[in-house]
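User: What would this chain look like folded?
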Amino acid sequence: MGAVRGCDLPDDLNYNVENNVWVRKEGDGSVTIGMTSYAGSLAGQIVSYTPKKVGKSVKKDKSCATVESGKWVGPAKSPIAGDVVAINDAVAGKPGLINDDPYGDGWLVKIQPSDWDGESTGLVTGAAVATAFEAKMESDGFAGCE
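Assistant: Here's the prediction, encoded as structure tokens.
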């Protein structure tokens, strides 16, 4: 697992760096989307999670869920267009999972992508993840995850 400024950033995932979200392609062709540990650190403890409903279409760079912390309310933007096929009931019951386990039990939604091959080309993967997030954190004036 990679880390930048104390923020875990697994290098086996795909990232939309600008929106602080990750994507994992699943064996059935769907993709799982979640917030990065960096996003959770910026937002603070997440207290509310409202995903798009199963069956709803999500456009690229539009909200797949709304999350709220004590200091922030906003969208988690999907880096891939498609239809929501699953929401995370565990996070609905305990939104803090987004902070506690962002790459495991704290995922947000699963989407059946409409154009994975076309849209995934803009995602950052592998060794480029650390460089991209270091530049973003520097630009944001972010000291590091706790």
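Residues 2-115 form a domain with the OB fold (Dihydrolipoamide Acetyltransferase, E2P) fold (CATH 2.40.50.100). If you want, I can go into more detail on any region.
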